[in-house]
TrEMBL record:
Keyword tRNA processing set for record: no
SUPFAM superfamilies hit by this protein: Kelch motif
Pfam family, one: Kelch_1
Source species of the chain: Marmota monax
GO biological process: protein ubiquitination
Protein name: Kelch-like protein 17
Keywords: Kelch repeat
Signal peptide start-end: none
């Protein structure tokens, strides 16, 4: 990378790795870099609309989303979407709760913002985003408040015996 970053968030999209925002020891960053393994090179892409570190980052339906984070003054609830085809960021609906040090995960056509910190305390809340309606709604809560949380989606594949005509696929919902 050409920019030193901590509290950076990363995601893969179209076979490339994106390093989004972060903090360079003097300021919070809006810059984004893309690593292309085919050419073993980092290149800058369009900067986000807001500076942010410790944000949530996920990929949904061919777009890179960044939600929340910290701009050096406060926790954010703003959300942006990057289109690699257009090479540009756009604002989408903000989360209902300001949060940083949370995780963002895509599952079943939704984005889930899980836990984090609102600037005062750790959160146990989860909210989900529907890209078709451009709205965030509250989802279930965790039993324990968590910040600097990591979230993953595990899809369980149940392979039937060769004589069985069906394949069962399930995912555990939040």
């Amino acid at each position: 990378m050409s920019t030193r970053r901590r509290y950076v968030r990363v995601a893969t999209l179209d076979g490339n790795l994106y390093a989004v925002g972060g903090y360079d020891s003097s300021s919070h960053l809006a810059t984004v870099e893309k690593y292309e393994p085919q050419v073993n090179a980092w290149t800058p892409v369009a900067s986000m609309l807001s500076r942010r570190s410790s944000a949530g980052v996920a990929v949904l339906e061919g777009a890179l989303y960044v939600a929340g984070g910290n701009d050096g003054t406060s926790c954010l609830n703003s959300v942006e979407r990057y289109s690699p085809k257009a090479g540009a960021w756009e604002s989408v609906a903000p989360m209902n709760i300001r949060r940083s040090t949370h995780d963002l995960v895509a599952m079943d056509g939704w984005l889930y913002a899980v836990g984090g910190n609102d600037g005062s305390s750790s959160l146990n809340s989860i909210e989900k985003y529907n890209p078709r309606t451009n709205k965030w709604v509250a989802a279930s809560c965790m039993f324990t408040r968590r910040s600097s949380v990591g979230v993953a989606v595990l899809e369980l594949l149940n392979f039937p015996p060769p004589s069985s005509p069906t394949l069962s696929v399930s995912s555990t919902s939040l």
